Amino acid sequence: MSNRGHVSHQGFSLIETVIVLVVIAILATFAILALGNSAENLERQNVARGFKVALERARFDSVKRRPETCADQARIEITAPGSYSVVIDQDQNGILDSVDTRVVDFGARSNVNIVTPDLTSTVIYRFDSKGQVTSGPCTAPVEISSAVTFCQLPCAAPDPTNSNMIFISPTGTAAFLTGGSTVPSFEDPTVANVAPTMNPFLAVWDLITGNTNTNTNGNTNTSTNTSTNTSTNTSTNTSTNTSTNTSTNTSTNTSTNTSTNTSTNTSTNTSTNTSTNTSTNTSTNTSTNSNTNSSLPYCQNNHPPGATCQCGPEQHILNGVCRRLH
């Protein structure tokens, strides 16, 4: 009699099968929800990035064309929560006309709206020839520093999970931020006034190149003395005026000018009656010195001095020629 192996035919019970199916269903549900949020987040981010690109294109268009009037500046106009207009030189003819306006309607293809700024009226971001951004009408443009928030509907309050922001700086640059971020603020830089300094090398050069042996000195001294004396008997009036002018010029490429002017007036009156004495002294001293350095060679013996030579210290003139001293 042969022995046959025992074969088990036991399988999964119904309860085990149901538990496995429930776990799979729960995991699938979470996966579907996660994929759905990712698609919405990606769509919202694409809308925000598209607005950022439109701002950069408008800024570049104004800097390139350098418009002279406000109406000719490239701009972005937000007219509704789900759309905005891009006004740039689309046909490249150098001006803005009716064909240069393009409307971007993102609300029709996504569940995203612009929640800030307030859209009770059209919001305009206008760029000048320097790329700086202003808002408001052309008659009263206002510099701005604000953000545009794109939020997934329904949007009770923008936060990092349901919104994105495009920050616009006063210089016209745009930055991509998560929802709920703090908008940065900018202050005017501190400007310090720096006093101009003289180049010391220029002053030295002026001294070197300005060498001259011509000096002009003008001195004007005016002395007016008025004395009123009341006298009866004796009246003595003494007036002494002394003026000394000394000018010394030494030239070996060195010039020294000294001018001294002294005026002394003395009036002594002893009296009882009435005597009026007026003394006016005016002294004007002008000294002009011009020095030219020239030296002639010494003449040979028996040679007459003249324009070409002169007698030396060991020679004297005898009969019109230079002769050596004996």
Give the secondary structure arrangement, pairings included.
Elements lengths: L13 H52 L9 E6 L2 E5 L13 E5 L6 E5 L6 E5 L5 E3 L6 E2 L2 E7 L10 E6 L5 E5 L21 H10 L4 E16 L45 E16 L24 E4 L2 E4 L2
Description:
The protein has 326 residues and is an alpha+beta fold. It folds into three domains: 14-178, minor pseudopilin epsh domain (minor pseudopilin epsh fold, 3-Layer(bab) Sandwich), CATH 3.55.40; 216-235 and 265-290, no CATH class; 292-326, no CATH class. Helix content is 19%, strand content 27%. It contains two helices and 14 strands. The protein has a six-stranded antiparallel β-sheet. A four-stranded antiparallel β-sheet has the order 4-8-9-10, covered by helices on one side. Strand 5 (123-127) and strand 6 form a beta hairpin. The radius of gyration is 52 Å and the shape is elongated. The termini are far apart.
Keywords:
326 residues; alpha+beta; minor pseudopilin epsh fold; 3 domains; 6-stranded antiparallel β-sheet; 2 helices
Number of helices: 2
Largest sheet: 6 strands, antiparallel
Contiguous runs where pLDDT drops below 50 for at least 5 residues: 211-294
Query: If strands are numbered along the chain, what order do they take across the biggest sheet?
Result: 3-2-1-5-6-7
- Can you count the beta strands? 14
Order of helices and strands: HEEEEEEEEEEHEEEE
Per CATH, the class of the largest domain reads Alpha Beta
Q: Structural class per helix/strand content?
A: alpha+beta
CATH topology of the largest domain: minor pseudopilin epsh fold
Supply Rg.
52 Å
CATH architecture assignment name of the largest domain: 3-Layer(bab) Sandwich
Share of helix among residues? 10-25%
| C-alpha geometry | elongated
Q: Could you tell me the mean pLDDT?
A: 75
State the distance separating the first and last CA atoms: 176 Å
How much β-strand is present in the residues?
A: 25-35%
* CATH homologous superfamily caption of the largest domain: minor pseudopilin epsh domain
Domains (count):
3
